[in-house]
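Retro notes - structure team

What went well: the batch runner handled both jobs without manual restarts.
What didn't: labels got mixed up in the shared folder, which is why I'm recording both outputs here explicitly, each with its sequence directly above its C-alpha coordinates.

Job 1
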Amino acid sequence: RIFPNCDDPPLHHTDPGKAYIDMVEVFGYDLNDIRQFIINSIEGAFVDESDKKRWRIDWLKEFDSLRSKLEIPTSPQ
Protein backbone atom coordinates (compact mmCIF):
# COMPACT_ATOMS: atom_id res chain seq x y z
CA ARG A 1 0.00 0.00 0.00
CA ILE A 2 1.26 3.40 -0.98
CA PHE A 3 1.23 6.54 1.10
CA PRO A 4 3.43 9.61 0.71
CA ASN A 5 5.95 10.21 3.45
CA CYS A 6 8.99 12.36 4.07
CA ASP A 7 11.48 10.53 6.23
CA ASP A 8 13.87 13.44 6.69
CA PRO A 9 12.27 16.68 5.41
CA PRO A 10 15.35 18.96 5.63
CA LEU A 11 17.57 16.42 3.88
CA HIS A 12 15.07 15.77 1.08
CA HIS A 13 13.89 19.40 0.78
CA THR A 14 10.25 18.46 1.29
CA ASP A 15 7.47 18.27 3.85
CA PRO A 16 4.36 16.09 4.23
CA GLY A 17 2.17 18.46 2.22
CA LYS A 18 4.65 18.68 -0.64
CA ALA A 19 4.90 14.89 -0.71
CA TYR A 20 1.18 14.70 -1.51
CA ILE A 21 1.42 17.51 -4.08
CA ASP A 22 4.28 15.67 -5.79
CA MET A 23 2.16 12.51 -5.99
CA VAL A 24 -0.27 14.48 -8.18
CA GLU A 25 2.05 16.81 -10.11
CA VAL A 26 5.04 14.52 -10.61
CA PHE A 27 3.55 11.03 -10.58
CA GLY A 28 0.07 11.70 -11.99
CA TYR A 29 -2.13 10.37 -9.21
CA ASP A 30 -5.64 11.82 -8.91
CA LEU A 31 -7.76 12.85 -5.93
CA ASN A 32 -9.28 9.39 -5.60
CA ASP A 33 -5.74 8.03 -5.24
CA ILE A 34 -4.88 10.72 -2.71
CA ARG A 35 -7.94 9.77 -0.65
CA GLN A 36 -6.79 6.14 -0.69
CA PHE A 37 -3.27 7.21 0.32
CA ILE A 38 -4.79 8.93 3.35
CA ILE A 39 -6.60 5.71 4.27
CA ASN A 40 -3.37 3.75 3.77
CA SER A 41 -1.44 6.13 6.00
CA ILE A 42 -4.03 5.82 8.76
CA GLU A 43 -3.97 2.03 8.51
CA GLY A 44 -0.15 2.03 8.68
CA ALA A 45 0.05 4.33 11.70
CA PHE A 46 1.41 2.94 14.95
CA VAL A 47 -1.58 4.07 17.04
CA ASP A 48 -4.45 2.22 18.63
CA GLU A 49 -7.57 1.32 16.68
CA SER A 50 -9.71 3.93 18.41
CA ASP A 51 -7.39 6.67 17.10
CA LYS A 52 -7.44 5.15 13.61
CA LYS A 53 -11.23 5.03 13.66
CA ARG A 54 -11.46 8.67 14.75
CA TRP A 55 -8.87 9.76 12.18
CA ARG A 56 -10.70 7.94 9.36
CA ILE A 57 -13.92 9.74 10.25
CA ASP A 58 -12.36 13.18 10.79
CA TRP A 59 -9.74 13.22 8.04
CA LEU A 60 -11.93 11.72 5.32
CA LYS A 61 -14.78 14.05 6.21
CA GLU A 62 -12.39 17.01 5.87
CA PHE A 63 -10.89 15.68 2.63
CA ASP A 64 -14.31 15.04 1.08
CA SER A 65 -15.53 18.48 2.14
CA LEU A 66 -12.52 20.22 0.59
CA ARG A 67 -12.71 18.10 -2.57
CA SER A 68 -16.40 18.95 -3.01
CA LYS A 69 -15.43 22.63 -3.25
CA LEU A 70 -13.24 21.94 -6.29
CA GLU A 71 -14.76 21.92 -9.74
CA ILE A 72 -12.94 18.76 -10.78
CA PRO A 73 -14.96 15.81 -12.05
CA THR A 74 -14.21 12.63 -10.12
CA SER A 75 -13.74 9.35 -11.90
CA PRO A 76 -15.36 6.22 -10.51
CA GLN A 77 -13.10 4.07 -8.37
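Job 2
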Amino acid sequence: EILRELSVSDKIKAALCDGAGREGAVLETVKALENGNWAALDGLISELGIDAAQIPTIYKRSVNWANETLRLAS
Protein backbone atom coordinates (compact mmCIF):
# COMPACT_ATOMS: atom_id res chain seq x y z
CA GLU A 1 0.00 0.00 0.00
CA ILE A 2 2.74 2.45 0.90
CA LEU A 3 4.52 1.95 -2.41
CA ARG A 4 1.42 3.02 -4.32
CA GLU A 5 1.79 6.47 -2.79
CA LEU A 6 5.49 6.78 -3.61
CA SER A 7 6.75 8.03 -6.92
CA VAL A 8 8.93 5.05 -7.83
CA SER A 9 9.02 2.98 -10.98
CA ASP A 10 7.20 -0.32 -11.33
CA LYS A 11 10.60 -2.06 -11.53
CA ILE A 12 11.59 -0.68 -8.13
CA LYS A 13 8.22 -1.63 -6.66
CA ALA A 14 8.61 -5.18 -8.00
CA ALA A 15 12.14 -5.38 -6.60
CA LEU A 16 11.04 -4.21 -3.16
CA CYS A 17 7.92 -6.38 -2.98
CA ASP A 18 8.98 -9.54 -4.79
CA GLY A 19 12.74 -9.31 -5.38
CA ALA A 20 11.93 -9.34 -9.10
CA GLY A 21 14.14 -8.30 -11.99
CA ARG A 22 17.68 -6.98 -12.07
CA GLU A 23 16.79 -4.42 -9.42
CA GLY A 24 15.64 -7.23 -7.13
CA ALA A 25 18.91 -9.07 -7.72
CA VAL A 26 20.82 -5.91 -6.79
CA LEU A 27 18.76 -5.60 -3.60
CA GLU A 28 19.43 -9.24 -2.73
CA THR A 29 23.14 -8.66 -3.39
CA VAL A 30 23.19 -5.77 -0.91
CA LYS A 31 21.37 -7.88 1.68
CA ALA A 32 23.81 -10.76 1.20
CA LEU A 33 26.76 -8.39 1.60
CA GLU A 34 25.33 -6.75 4.71
CA ASN A 35 24.55 -10.14 6.29
CA GLY A 36 27.89 -11.71 5.38
CA ASN A 37 26.16 -14.39 3.30
CA TRP A 38 29.18 -14.98 1.08
CA ALA A 39 27.79 -18.04 -0.70
CA ALA A 40 24.70 -16.13 -1.82
CA LEU A 41 26.81 -13.09 -2.66
CA ASP A 42 29.03 -15.11 -4.99
CA GLY A 43 26.03 -16.40 -6.92
CA LEU A 44 24.34 -13.02 -7.12
CA ILE A 45 27.36 -11.08 -8.35
CA SER A 46 27.96 -13.77 -10.93
CA GLU A 47 24.33 -13.46 -12.06
CA LEU A 48 24.72 -9.67 -12.29
CA GLY A 49 28.06 -9.87 -14.09
CA ILE A 50 29.92 -7.98 -11.36
CA ASP A 51 33.61 -8.62 -10.72
CA ALA A 52 34.02 -9.64 -7.06
CA ALA A 53 37.09 -7.41 -6.80
CA GLN A 54 34.84 -4.39 -7.43
CA ILE A 55 32.46 -5.07 -4.53
CA PRO A 56 34.39 -3.06 -1.89
CA THR A 57 34.62 -0.04 -4.20
CA ILE A 58 30.95 -0.24 -5.19
CA TYR A 59 29.91 -0.62 -1.54
CA LYS A 60 32.03 2.35 -0.43
CA ARG A 61 30.61 4.54 -3.19
CA SER A 62 27.05 3.59 -2.25
CA VAL A 63 27.66 4.35 1.44
CA ASN A 64 29.17 7.72 0.53
CA TRP A 65 26.18 8.48 -1.71
CA ALA A 66 23.72 7.57 1.06
CA ASN A 67 25.59 9.67 3.62
CA GLU A 68 25.66 12.67 1.29
CA THR A 69 21.96 12.27 0.48
CA LEU A 70 21.08 12.16 4.18
CA ARG A 71 23.30 15.16 4.88
CA LEU A 72 21.57 17.20 2.17
CA ALA A 73 18.13 16.18 3.44
CA SER A 74 18.76 17.42 6.96
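One thing worth noting from job 2: The CA atoms of residues 36 and 52 lie 14 Å apart.
We'll revisit the folder naming next retro.
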